[in-house]
Amino acid sequence: MSLDIGDVAPDFTLKNQHGEEVSLSSFTGESAVLLVFFPFAFSGICSGEFGEIRDHMSDFDGAEVLAVSCDHFFANRAFADAQGLEFSVLSDFWPHGEVSRAYGIFNEDVGVAERGTSVIDRQGIVRWKVEHGINDARDLGAYREALAALA
9, 14, 36, 46: which is the annotated catalytic residue? Predict the structure, then answer.
């Protein structure tokens, strides 16, 4: 399934690194969402990308950052703790990759999410997205620009 800019973002409920359920729809009317899919906790590229997000959280004021991987929430907890991540790191572990598939970012050959990012506005509409392969890092500046365009 392909998700296009202007589409309603598929709702989901996933466990965060603390085992708490987080639903995308809970942010509707409250805040924009930066939805960041990533393939592997503890990989070099993922650690670098989330270190940048962590170190520049003030750039995302007014937006909720949600990271999503197909790793189990226990692995996400270890990753979040090791990286000092205070935003939700969500587990798309079971049914395996269901949310990643809904966003058109699941890599069937490897069994993980590709590097996909969506900016979802307060009404739950996808306003921007970028997709990269597993080995291609994303540009944090592009996130800033996309969120600034919502203001």
Answer: 46
